[in-house]
Amino acid sequence: MSTHKTLVFTGGGSGGHVMPALTILKQINQNSSYDVHYIGGISSIERELVADYKLVYHPIHTGKLRRYLSMENMKDISRVFLGLIDSFKVLWKFKRKNTLVFSSGGFVSVPVVIAAKLQRKKVFIHEQTSRVGLANKICSIFADRVFISFEDSFKYFDENKTYYSGYPLRQECYTEEIKPVSFKGRMLNDSQKPILFVTGGGNGAQLINKLIVKNFKFLTDNYLVVHQTGKSFYSEYEKLEHPDYIALPFIGQEMIQLFKLATVTVSRSGAGTVCELIAVGKKSIYVPLRIAQKNEQFFNALEAHKKLGSIIIEEKELTDESFLASLAEIGMENPRQSVQKQNGLQFLVEEIEKAF
């Protein structure tokens, strides 16, 4: 049995559930008093994403939770049950009073949270989006505390154990400093043109990508365009040669600095992206993913609209005309705004520390 403070993270099935946990993990890793573990799927994305972190990874069986009728539900019920047994075995190793399970959501977290509750271990969960997912709705029944990124999410949980934490973001989101950013030999900080940053996320969004092609001359005449295409689409867009167009398959650590530098960012509205742009204080243009669960991306973007006046263009309304009109509305100058900000990272780390 471990005699250390044991912190067990779980969550996954998509990068959106894993990244908040990794942000907390990076901060937690500075504290050597924790014995850190991660419980995730056998072949899920979280296993790959946590590989570079100092922790022990425990793979379990997982089953997807669906709100609709499907024959796959029968198979997945058995997988969830196997995951519950797997989780129970992993958590049994750790002393109850010295263990905290922290879930960032996704279907992989459900058996872990239930197993922890059965062993009377303390459970915290964090909801990233403005609309609660099914997994976190289930997990909230068994959790000791529920933390939310958007205040509008209070209505989905037991108010007696729900706290507004905000989204865990890197500290650089809150600083005025803009570090040098260079892509393909071009120093963006020195640009004489306003910068337009277009992204459909790490996987790209062809719907948004096509706007660049159709309006290429206007955009490059007026902006330095930085375009995160997604790896699947990069070969198509790298052929668009122009001194004021930079196509990139994926942007990593430079993302926050690029949000600060860009006059306008055009993007999907996943919770992480929206919260980062709110923290940075930049009015942006969002094209919510229409098929997202419970239209959650629209409501994420709505938070940015309320706080910063950001513009939402729904997919059915996305045309060249609506896109260019939105650019004109923001204009060629878009200074950072001051909004009420809560450092979700610091809040959650402090809550974890107080749990022991």
Describe this structure in words.
It is a single chain. This protein folds into two domains: 5-164, Glycogen Phosphorylase B (Rossmann fold, 3-Layer(aba) Sandwich), CATH 3.40.50; 173-330, Rossmann fold (3-Layer(aba) Sandwich). Helix 1 links the parallel strand 1 (5-10) and strand 2 (34-41). The chain has a seven-stranded parallel sheet with strand order 3-2-1-4-5-6-7, with helices on both faces. The protein has a six-stranded parallel sheet with strand order 12-11-10-13-14-15, with helices on both faces. The chain has a two-stranded antiparallel ribbon with strand order 8-9. The chain contains 13 helices and 15 strands. The chain is elongated, with a radius of gyration of 21 Å. The chain starts with a strand and ends with a helix. The chain is α/β, with parallel strands linked by helices and 356 residues long. The chain is 37% helix and 18% strand. It has helices at 15-28, 45-49, 72-91, 109-118, 134-142, 206-214, 216-222, 234-237, 255-261, 271-280, 296-308, 320-330, 344-354; strands at residues 5-10, 34-41, 56-60, 99-103, 122-127, 145-148, 162-164, 182-183, 186-187, 195-199, 224-228, 245-248, 264-267, 285-286, 311-312.
